[in-house]
Design brief:
Structural class: alpha+beta
Strand order of the largest sheet: 1-2
Helix content: 25-40%
Number of helices: 3
Shape: globular
Number of strands: 10
CATH class of the largest domain: Alpha Beta
Length: 148
Amino acid sequence: MTVMELTREFLRTLIKVQSSTGCWEYSGARDAAGYGRIFLAGKEQKAHRIFYEAFVGPIPKGARLKHSLTAVECVGSRCCNPAHVEVKQSFSAVAIAHRICRQGHLIGSDNAVIEHRGDNLLIRCRICRQQTWRNEKRAAAAAKEDSR
């Protein structure tokens, strides 16, 4: 048995197959958005990315995985079935769904900051992000004043 076969067998123990949708529902820890999280090589990663790489192959650099099925057909962020995701190469057409940040601001196309974190994109509230930047700048200035 190869290392990849052992990895696949281990990954299969972390899912429950939904007979109605064919989803592989991840049964381990999840983040705030509902995506499964797996620690691999000392780094926390999204479970559906690990499953895709184990069962399909490597994800191209800079690409992202997007669930291609509707909410009726798939459980969405909890699903790790590689057949339910597609590889997206371009970030130019990132659609920002309207949602609310923790402070209650509406995050839409006019109030969103898209940040690159390695191979991932994070969509953040522009108002909250600007406040964080200001606070960090003030803290740095205060630390500099204190060191004098």
